[in-house]
Amino acid sequence: MPKPAPRRITIIDVARHAQVSTTAVSKVLRNAYGASPAMRAKVQQAIDELGFRPSAAARGLRGQTYTIGVMLPDLRNLFFADILDGITTQLGDTDYQVLLAPGCNGEQAEARVIDAMIDRSMDGLVLIAPVSSKTRLNTVARSVPTVVVGRHGSATTYDSVTDDDVAGAALVVDHLADLGHRRIAHIEHHETDPVRLAEMPNAQRANGYRDAMRARGLADEIDIASTSYTHHGGYAGAKELLSRPHRPTAIFAGADVVALGAMEAIAEAGLTIPDDISVVGYDNSALAAFGPISLTSVDQDGREMGANAARLVIDRIADRTRRTVQVKLTPSLAVRRTTAAPVQGAEVNSASPAPTE
Amino acid sequence: MPKPAPRRITIIDVARHAQVSTTAVSKVLRNAYGASPAMRAKVQQAIDELGFRPSAAARGLRGQTYTIGVMLPDLRNLFFADILDGITTQLGDTDYQVLLAPGCNGEQAEARVIDAMIDRSMDGLVLIAPVSSKTRLNTVARSVPTVVVGRHGSATTYDSVTDDDVAGAALVVDHLADLGHRRIAHIEHHETDPVRLAEMPNAQRANGYRDAMRARGLADEIDIASTSYTHHGGYAGAKELLSRPHRPTAIFAGADVVALGAMEAIAEAGLTIPDDISVVGYDNSALAAFGPISLTSVDQDGREMGANAARLVIDRIADRTRRTVQVKLTPSLAVRRTTAAPVQGAEVNSASPAPTE
Fold first, then answer.
1. Residue in B6, B142, B286 closest to A5 by CB
2. Which residues of chain B have pLDDT under 70?
3. Which residues of chain B are within 8 Å of residue A55 when distances are taken between CB atoms?
4. Considering the domain B165-300 in this protein, what is its CATH number?
5. With an 8 Å Cβ cutoff, are A121 and B57 in contact?
6. Of A56, A85, A292, Cβ closest to residue B121
7. By its UniProt entry, which PROSITE patterns does this protein fall under (chains A, B) (predicted)?
8. Which candidate, B251, B233, B231, places its Cα nearest to that of B242?
C-alpha cells in the first residue's frame, strides 16, 4: 500500500529545530536586514537537516517566485533549443528557475499560455517570436517584466533581442550571386497583418531578399513562394517553385526546417543538390551542421540571443521603470555542401518533373 | 517613458462590480457548494468585464495551482517533443497548464529541477527518463503525485509508462537477421549503476539485443560499443565498431540521435548506407522519417506514451492513495532506406579505413 504523503516541514519546525524565533527564520529566508551571520548559519543548518523547502507559492505572495517563464512557439525547431541554452547558462548561477511553456500555435494559444504564466506569478517573461498584437504585448509587458526575442520594431514597455534579418538575407543573396546564380528564389512565411509585416523576422527576411536582389541587379529574377515556416511549408514551396516556367537554380528558405522540406521536394523531383539546385537555410541549427545534411545556413547565434534575453529580463526585474533596451545581433553565413556554382544550362527546364509551360 | 504597472484587479473589485459579497465571489472561484447558478453567472460576468485573473499563487495556498510540471532530459531529442504533444493534447480541455523544466543533465541537475517544481507547488509531475535513484524518486512521489515515463521496474509510489524495450530490440535484431545479417553490432549507453541497469530503457535495449542475438543463434556475433545516447556517442561508437577486426554489416543504435552520429562516422569512413552497412535507430522521431535520412527505427509512439502519462497524473491528483498503475506499450518497427540485405563479401574487412588486423 502506498504511504500517505508526509506532513510538509514548515517554518515553525525550522525555528524549533534551530532554537530561534520564527521571525528570525523568516528574516533569513527573506534575506532581510537584521539577520546576523551566526543566525543565518544556524537557520541554514536546521533547513538542511530537516530538508525544509520554502514554498514558492508563499514566496510568490511576498513578491517573488524566482521563476522566469519562457514561451517557445515550437519545440521541434532546434534553433529555439540554442536560445534556451543561452538563457539557462546565463541564469545558471542565480536563484532563478526557467520554466517553459510549450506548444503555442497562433494568437489564441499564445494568449492562453502568457496568461497562464502571469497567473503563476512569474517574475519575468521571455517571449520567443510571439505573434501577438503589439497592443497585447504592451499589456503583458506592463504587468510583468518582459523581453521579446525575434521581433523587430520599437517598443517602450519591453526589451528586445533580434538578429539583423535584413542583413542575414543579404548574406544569402550575395553568396549565391557570387557563385554565379541569377535565378535565386525565396520561400517566405505568408503574412498579411501590417504590424507583423513590419516586425516579424520572416517578413524582414523576405524584404532583405528583395532589397539584396535589387542591389545585385537581379530585380527581374525575384521569385517568391509564400507558404509557412514549417517542414511542409518548405516542401510545398519548393514544389511550387520547381513547377514554374523558369526553374530557379537556387532556393533561399527562410528557416532550416523550411530548407529541409524543400530538400525533400527536390529529391522527389529527381534533382540533385547542389548540382541541379542550391539550397540555403536560416538559423544554422544543429540539423544544418549534421554531416549528411550539411546545409548552408545563416547563423543567428541563438545562445548569444538567449544570454542577452536572460540578462535583460533580470535587469528589468530589478528596475521596472528603466528605459527599454534593444539588442540587435549581426548574423554570419555558415557555408556548407548545399550551395555551389550553377551548372551551365541548368536554367533550362528539362529536368523539371511537371513543367507547366 | 514606460507607464507604471497598473494595479492588479482583486476579488474586492469583482465583488463591488457584481454587487455581491467577497465571500460569494470566493465561493464561485473555489467552485464551492452554496453558490447558486444566478450568483455564478453574476460573478462570472464581473470577472469577464474587469479582466480579473485569480492569482495562481493564491490558488496554490488553497491547494491547487493547476500546473503539471514536465521534466525533459534533452530538448534536442525530438522524441520527447512527441511525448509532450501527447501530454498537452490530453490536457487540452482541462484547466491544467503544462510547464516544462528543461536541461537536466545528470542526477544533480535533475534534483535541482525537481525541487524547483515542488517549490512552485505543482499539482503533479511527469518525469521523463529520470536518472535519479529509486529512493529519490520515491521521496518525490510521496510529496507530489508523480508519473515516470521511460523507466522500468516496480514502484509503489508513482505510476509509470514504458515502452517494451526488450521487445523493441528484438524487432531490430529479427529484421536484420531476416535480411541475412549476422554481424549485427549495438551501440549502448554506458551504465554501471545496478538499479539503472535494471530500470533504464537503454539497459533494457542492450539486454533485449543480447537475448535476441542468442535466440537467433548469433551469440558469437554479439558486439557492443559502450558510449552514450548522444550524437557524439553514436559517432564515437560507430568509429570504434568500424575499426574492429570483424567489421559489422549492421549497427543497431539505441536511439535515433545515436544513429545519426553513427551515420556521420560511416560516411566519413567512405562507406555507404545501406550497401556497406545497415543502420537502425530507436524512437522513430521526426528526423528518422525525414526523407534524405530515411532511417529504419523502432516506433515507441511518444504521443501515446504522453497521453497515458497525462491521464495517470490527473487520476493520481484526484486520488493520491490509489494503487500504482504501470502502462507498458508495445513498439513497432518503421522500416526505411537505411537497412538492406548485406552485400556478399561485405564482411571481409577490405573497405575498413584503418584495419587493425
1. B142
2. 1-8, 30-34, 54-63, 103-104, 344-357
3. 60, 119, 121
4. 3.40.50.2300
5. yes
6. A56
7. HTH_LACI_1, HTH_LACI_2
8. B251
Contacts of residue A137 in chain B, CB cutoff 8 Å? none
Q: Could you tell me how many CB contacts below 8 A there are between chain A and chain B?
A: 158
Q: Which of A64, A96, A100, A326 to mutate to test the interface with B (most CBs of B within 10 A)?
A: A100
Which of B85, B113, B292 has its CB closest to that of A267? B292
Candidates B52, B53, B75, partner chain A, best to mutate (most A CBs within 10 A): B75
Residue at grid coordinates 502506498: A2
Equal fold, B67-162+302-326 vs B165-300: yes
Question: CB within 8 A of A157, min separation 6: which ones?
Answer: A137, A138, A141, A142, A146, A324, B2, B3
Is residue A159's pLDDT more than 90? yes
- What CATH architecture applies to the domain B11-54? Orthogonal Bundle (1.10)
For residue B283, the SS3 value is strand
Lowest mean pLDDT across A110-124, A226-240, A342-356, B314-328? A342-356
- The residue extents of the domains of chain A are 11-54, 67-162+302-326, 165-300
Residues 6+ away with beta carbon under 8 Å from A83: A128, A149, A302, A303, A305, A306, A309
> A215-226: per-residue pLDDT in tens?
999 999 999 999
Q: What is the pTM of this model?
A: 0.77
| Per-residue pLDDT tens digits for B108-167 | 888 888 988 888 889 999 999 998 888 899 999 998 999 999 999 888 999 999 999 999
Measure A216 CA to nearest chain B CA, in Å.
Answer: 33
Residue A327: phi and psi, rounded to 5, are: -105, 125
Strand duo A223-227 + A278-282: pairing: unpaired
User: Which of A100-104, A338-342, B346-350 comes out lowest in average pLDDT?
Assistant: B346-350
What is the fold, at CATH topology level, of the domain defined by B67-162+302-326? Rossmann fold (3.40.50)
Q: Which residues of B are less than 8 Å from A56 in CB distance?
A: 116, 119-121
How many residues would you count in chain B?
A: 357
- Closest partner CB to B101 (pick from A85, A99, A157): A99
ipTM greater than 0.85: no
